[in-house]
């Protein structure tokens, strides 16, 4: 059963190249399938081009989902990166 969490992007430039790369790399370190959802679109969080294609601005609510053997750890890890990078809360 998948787990998910919604976060609000607070970085004034939104999800741009550097934080997107950090998120994709973190997601890639887990076995679980991971997605990021914004504005009705759900994209593989392990795809840098996919994440960048969403064009997520400051103030956006995004939902991070994980589904797989390490889903709880994966979700917590990615949300922690979002917070530690100052990307969102």
TrEMBL record:
Keywords: Cytoplasm, Phosphotransferase system, Sugar transport, Transport. Residues 2-89 form the HPr domain. Pfam families: PTS-HPr. One of its GO terms (biological process) is phosphoenolpyruvate-dependent sugar phosphotransferase system. GO terms for cellular component: cytoplasm. SUPFAM superfamilies: HPr-like. The keyword Lyase does not apply. Gene3D superfamilies: HPr-like. InterPro entries: HPr, HPr-like, HPr-like_sf, PTS_HPr_His_P_site, PTS_HPr_Ser_P_site. Its main location: cytoplasm. It comes from the Bacteria. It is found in: Cytoplasm. General (non sugar-specific) component of the phosphoenolpyruvate-dependent sugar phosphotransferase system (sugar PTS). This major carbohydrate active-transport system catalyzes the phosphorylation of incoming sugar substrates concomitantly with their translocation across the cell membrane. The phosphoryl group from phosphoenolpyruvate (PEP) is transferred to the phosphoryl carrier protein HPr by enzyme I. Phospho-HPr then transfers it to the PTS EIIA domain. Belongs to the HPr family. This is Phosphocarrier protein HPr. It comes from Gracilibacillus halotolerans.
């Amino acid at each position: 059963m998948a787990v998910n969490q919604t976060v609000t992007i607070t970085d004034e430039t939104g999800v741009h190249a550097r934080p997107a790369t950090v998120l994709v790399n973190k997601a890639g370190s887990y076995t679980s399938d991971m997605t990021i959802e914004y504005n009705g679109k759900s994209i593989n969080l392990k795809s840098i081009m996919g994440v960048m294609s969403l064009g997520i601005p400051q103030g956006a609510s995004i939902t991070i989902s994980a589904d797989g053997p390490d889903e709880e750890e994966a979700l917590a890890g990615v949300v922690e990166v979002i917070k530690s990078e100052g990307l969102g809360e």
